[in-house]
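Recall the central idea of this unit: under ordinary conditions, the amino acid sequence of a chain determines the structure it adopts. In this exercise we apply that idea directly, starting from the sequence alone.
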Amino acid sequence: MCDDPKHTGRSETRAGAGDGEARSAVERKSPPTERVVQILNLLADTPREQLTLTQVASSLGLNKPTCLGILTALTDAHFVTRDESKSYGLGPALLRLGAAAESGLANLDLVRPVLAELHDRVGVSCVLSTTHQGQIVIVDRLGTVIPGDRQDLIAERYSLTPPLGLVNIAWEHDDVVDAWLNRSPLIPLGAGKDKVRTIIDNGRERGYLIQRLTTTTSSNIVLASLLTSEMPRRVIDEVLRYLPPADWSEFIGDLPDDDGADIPVATISTPIHDRRGAQQYTLTLVPGRPDATVGECKEWAKSAVNAARTATIALGGS
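Accordingly, the structure predicted from this sequence is:
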């Protein structure tokens, strides 16, 4: 038998290594791919400089023919640029990849630890949502949002259509707000655009929006629950016909001056921005407390805003 380790792994693994085979497959690396990654990382470390073939090859310990072949392929794909002096730098195709990663959920792992820390510290349920293709998407949840409700909520989708979604667009650019307001509402609206803009202005000034806990059928929470229920669509449409007009009255404006005063609070929402200043996520605390005090609301809001700011910085925002 050959003692060369290159030729012994597969037969020994198949003889009954079991999990070892899986680990071997996962740990197996591709040296050519590693060289591509090394070159891109090297160019990324010096984004304002152009490096010659000699500099790249020398820095990575590669021979020039191998290095030239990789650089040529990357240049053809526009991942790398080559100027008249035959020096190389990062190419425009990387911008497309970066934008795709940022617009997707690749950065969610940067936000989840912040959500977990907030939940552990304040002991209040938390929900993380985003918007995608005209829908509100729940991407994470910690704690029980609605007592007795067995819905996991994660991956639930709601139509980003008035009256739903105000907290998800309140801190967006005005053209995004306008586009949302111009959509045909899910149910009749009992308040005009001026009231909505007043709510948004208050939220932008404070950094958060508070929704009052209510049992009325005009509540956004009730409406969202209805739309994601397992009832047939024809039944949902029939129920929608009998809901009273939505007027966003559950959004609380100025809090009372007395910190000891009771205030029934359902949710407290605040934005998480990306590096371009867009509202990437919405962080929502869900106290669901009919007997909360103004002082408690202020502390919850402060904690939520600070957590959202930490998450924004993690995403490259400010």
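The first strand starts at residue 51 and ends at 52.
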